[in-house]
Amino acid sequence: MLFPQWQIGVANVLYDGDPHFDADAHLRLVEKLKVTTFCVPPTMYRIFVQSNLDDYDLSSIRHSLGAGEPLNPEVMRVWKDKVGNEVHDGYGQTESVNLVANFPGMEIRPGSMGKPVPGIDVQIVDDEGVVVADDVVGHIAVRITDPYPLGLFRGYQNDEAATAKCIHHGWYYTGDMATRDSDGYIWFVGRNDDVISSASYRISPFEVESTLLEHPAVMESAVVGKPDKMRGEIVKAYITLASGFEPSDALIKDIQEFVKNQTAPYKYPREIEFRDALPKTISGKIRRVELRQEAINETT
Fold first, then answer.
1. What ranges in 42-159 are assigned the alpha helix state H?
2. Which of 45, 69, 85 lies at the terminal end of a domain, its last residue?
């Protein structure tokens, strides 16, 4: 059982938030140890696809998994093209077991977290607990059933207010927003606090981040809402650049035009700030809450 133990080590130990993370050393280990099941956070996938994956023999990998935060479609496409298998993204929380996943045999739709786990009723609902129509943004919620959903917590210890905030109307509200398409696939939009409201438009930071990653100059991005007197909020992007690119006003304009053309004009980042590295947790998640606070502080 060497390989499963090792892949857990990759996912949870070897990435320590160091901006100088050595992708080459990790890929050489995968090659040397003939890893078959590969599970790492999206941050690592984003770093790996910036490498020349043709330089490594990754043919031993039979199953790739992503966890921790949504994985961008462009990264998934590059990984599949170079490694030969699709990344199976999934969704769960500390308060629950895995709730939504891309199971073996399912069609993988890059950018979607997949479909609800059998036995758990996961829906997209409004503030009153009413299931919303397809393609409408709502809360990711778990229906409270009898018997109680397997693996779902029953509340926060000694914090009735926090429990009441997330368990009501017969649902557990995860705090995340998403849409559901007509085939039942769920598409992440963002945390409640992360969704950007700009001039009456609701903008998914994940969608903008995913579009940014399709630009050749962008290695990694984080998008937040920055307070604005006219629009309520504007889209601000923090970007780390791929090798060979340098910050410039011309590059900012080029990236902005790229996003306008790929999505919609109102979604483009009106402000772009280049960073050597983005703040991350020990497990590799981008700390958007920290960047959002920085953006707020700029306006005060």
1. 42-48, 73-83
2. 85
Q: Which pLDDT tens digit goes with each residue over 95-113?
A: 999 999 999 889 999 889 9
Is 122 strand, coil or helix?
A: strand
Domain holding 62, by residue range, is 2-85
Any idea which of 178-192, 248-262, 270-284 has the lowest mean pLDDT?
270-284
Q: What predicted TM-score, i.e. pTM, was given to this entire model?
A: 0.78
Q: Which residue has the tokens 């829906």?
A: 123
Taking only the tens place, the pLDDT of each residue in 80-97 is: 999 999 999 999 999 999
Number of domains the chain contains:
3
Residue 94 within any structural domain of the chain: no
Give strand pairing partners of 138. Answer: 178
> CB neighbours of 222 closer than 8 A, spacing ≥ 6?
205, 209, 237, 238, 278, 286, 288, 291
